[in-house]
Amino acid sequence: MVVKIRLARFGKKHAPFYNIVVAHARTARNSKPLEVLGTYDPIPKSPPPNDPHARPWKDIKLDRSRAKYWLGVGAQPSDPAWRLLSMIGLLEPKYRPSMVGGKVEKRSLIYGT
């Protein structure tokens, strides 16, 4: 059976919060996972007021050793999970061709910022 690394949504309406989980591919999104690897809070946190150059950030907490283990045994990350794992440095970012004027220009990173 295929095992996936994906996001399970928790939180309230208009205030999402995600668990980064390892689950069988055919189970429901919020069913009991095989393992919870970490959390992702997509709502930007405000920077400290005394630092004018600081930018808002999104909180990602992940057990890197367990994520490496699951990737090593063949777990396939979903696209949002791939984006998060590439931001952390566990995976290479996916590339996609950029379409400009109907022609493929150069490849651009998929970060979804």
Which terms would index this structure?
5-stranded mixed β-sheet, two-stranded antiparallel sheet, alpha+beta, 113 residues, S16 Ribosomal Protein, Chain: A
Query: Given this structure, which CATH class is correct?
Result: Alpha Beta
The fold-level CATH name is: S16 Ribosomal Protein, Chain: A
Regions with little confidence, pLDDT below 50 for 5+ residues: none
Structural class of the secondary elements? alpha+beta
Q: What coarse outline follows from CA principal-axis ratios?
A: globular
Mean pLDDT: 86
End-to-end gap: 33 Å
Strand content: over 45%
Q: In the CATH hierarchy, what is the architecture at level 2? A: 2-Layer Sandwich
How would you characterize the largest beta sheet?
Answer: 5 strands, mixed
Sequence of strands across the biggest β-sheet:
4-3-2-1-5
Order of helices and strands: EEEEHEHEE
CATH superfamily grouping:
Ribosomal protein S16
Protein name: Ribosomal protein S16
Family: Belongs to the bacterial ribosomal protein bS16 family.
Organism: Patellaria atrata CBS 101060
InterPro entries: Ribosomal_bS16, Ribosomal_bS16_CS, Ribosomal_bS16_dom_sf
